[in-house]
Amino acid sequence: MDETRRDRDAEGRARNARPRDGLGRPLPYGAPGVDRQPEGVIRTPEETLREAQRLLDAGMPFHAHEVFEDAWKSGPVAERELWRGLAQLAVGLTHAARGNTTGGARLLRRGAAALAGFGTLRPHGIGVDGLIGWAEELAGRVEAEKACGADAARVRPVDAAGDAPCLRPGGR
User: Fold this and answer.
1) Which are the contacts of 43, defined by CB distance < 8 A and separation ≥ 6?
2) Rounded distance, CA 52 to CA 85, Å?
3) Tell me, what's the pLDDT at 149?
């Protein structure tokens, strides 16, 4: 790869071709990375939730966010805020796991707010109220970690897989 030129996709759009790790961070050219999620895939809500949960369970919330983003962009208008909120939760977990406590907490809370209108509806079996509680708890925890500063004994880093939410109550 000629690093003086911008990476382009088949349509000529700028697209970073560097490999990425499980949290979506760019790696050096030539390094082994995690396969990216294909963009623009239209899935059923069931397929979206199954794939996103698989990626969350594998500690790959950045990739889960891309799955939710496809649903957000291609789904019915009435559900766009639902999928956008789920994407924000996934990217909030991504930032928190990367150590970006401010951005992680902010996105977790933004995603929880986006989901608030769906709580009693349980769209597609999604445990919205549980996800909102999870997001608020994790946001509070990462903010507390930041407040602890160098007191490493009091800090439990965010584990992208271990701290991943369950999208549907009673199963993954």
Assistant:
1) 51, 67, 70, 71
2) 13
3) 60
Secondary structure (3-state) at 14: strand
pLDDT above 60: residue 150: no
Encoded amino acid at 138, one letter: L
Distance CA 118, CA 1 (A): 46
Coil, helix or strand for 61? Answer: helix
Q: Over range 22-34, report the average pLDDT.
A: 89
Does residue 117 contact residue 81 with C-beta atoms inside 8 Å?
yes
Structural tokens at position 73: 């962009």
Q: How confident is the model at residue 17 (pLDDT cuts 50, 70, 90)?
A: confident
Q: How large is the average pLDDT for residues 144-153?
A: 62
Note whether 69 and 90 are within 8 A (CB).
no
Cα–chain-centroid distance for residue 28?
A: 23
d(CA 49, CA 163): 17
Q: What angle do CA 53, 54, 60 make, to 5 degrees?
A: 90
Q: What is the mean pLDDT of residues 70-81?
A: 95
Q: Compute the distance between CA of residue 46 and CA of residue 150 in angstroms, rounded to an integer.
A: 43
